[in-house]
Amino acid sequence: MNADAGGPAGFAATNAVVGTTPEPRIVGSFPETWVNGSECGNEPAIQVWEYAQDTYILRQSQCTNFEGPFMYLLFGGDQALLLDTGAVSIQIGGAVSGLIARYAQATGQSPIQLTVAHTHAHGDHIAGDGQFLGRPFTDVVTPNVGSVISFFGFTDWPNDSVTFSLGERVLDVLGIPGHEDSHIALYDRNTALLLTGDTLYPGFLFIGNAVSQGNFVKYQASIQRLVDFTADRPVNWVLGTHVEMTSTPSVAYRYGTTNQPKERMLQLDRGHLLELNDAVIAMGADPVQEVHDDFIIQPIN
Q: Does residue 24 register a pLDDT over 90?
């Protein structure tokens, strides 16, 4: 079903973090390489990686679409959250259903209530939504600002943070418009992963219509919001939804490249968030392209 208002059973929303955020219980791992378009015909359309128990990272092969987006599937109790559904038509529904079935068998939890949400509304993150519409025990959050506010329970968008619970697994949800108006970030207290979508990742950080629509001001505020939120919380890794940088610092693949055999690793850390914050503050009201070792600030005016 489409979930424009209210949340599923087990949903919890607050306007502030309650109590002290515990140290993360889970530290995961990454593959040596992701599918990157270098072996079309041999590599799978979707690479599924078990980062840690109940935490999966899915990467769409660039053989199917140059964007090569990353998606995240988190389990807790009898619930699961899928963040993004990829670009163009890939069998994301089947891949997720298979993981849910495996989780249900291993835990004895059945049925599993699935929430499909999005980092933001751009096409390369929502193309697989139709595969989940009408699926039993599934809520699909419509990717627009009103639906995101209503579903997650924001009362002062985008300034407040809210929580979304998967059983005892608590996720903090923050509004971070700037790249796109409905953009959110998720912080997982179990793993101390900060999922930042297209707002921060190793690649081109596009800020659409940065001057004419005030998006750069929104972007600056969103980065500061992330910095403030993480000031007293552990952050193991900052994970976005693309990789466009090469393994050589400050060198990116040309945008639109479909073969990236020497791409940089996905994971960033809080130091990169602070670096980005300092950079966009220093730009004042006039955003410009700025190349860093691990990302490129790219306003679109």
A: no
Residue 65 token pair: 């679409």
Domain count along the chain:
1
Please give the pLDDT value at position 27.
Answer: 81
Domain assignment of residue 233, yes or no: yes
Query: Domain of 163: which CATH number?
Result: 3.60.15.10
d(CA 287, CA 210): 7
Q: What is the pLDDT of residues 260-295, one digit of tens each?
A: 999 999 999 999 999 999 999 999 988 999 999 999
pLDDT the model gives residue 214: 79
In a domain, 151, yes or no: yes
Which two structure tokens, joined as six digits, stand for 267?
A: 């994971």
Determine phi and psi for 196, rounding to 5 degrees.
-115, 5
Q: What kind and span of H or E run contains 222?
A: helix 215-229
Neighbours of 6 (CB within 10 A): 11
137-175 pLDDT tens trace? 999 999 999 999 999 999 999 999 999 999 999 999 999
Does some domain include residue 37? no
Domain assignment of residue 120, given as a range: 46-299
Instruction: Determine the distance from the C-alpha atom of residue 19 to the mean position of all C-alpha atoms in its chain, rounded to a whole number.
Output: 25
Question: Does 1 fall in a domain?
Answer: no
Q: How many CB atoms lie within 10 A of CB 207?
A: 24
Tokens of 241: 């939804």
Q: What is the pLDDT of residues 226-263, one digit of tens each?
A: 999 999 999 999 999 999 999 999 999 999 999 999 99
Q: How far apart are CA 203 and CA 225, in angstroms?
A: 21
Q: Strand 169-175 to strand 184-188: parallel, antiparallel, or no bridges (unpaired)?
A: antiparallel
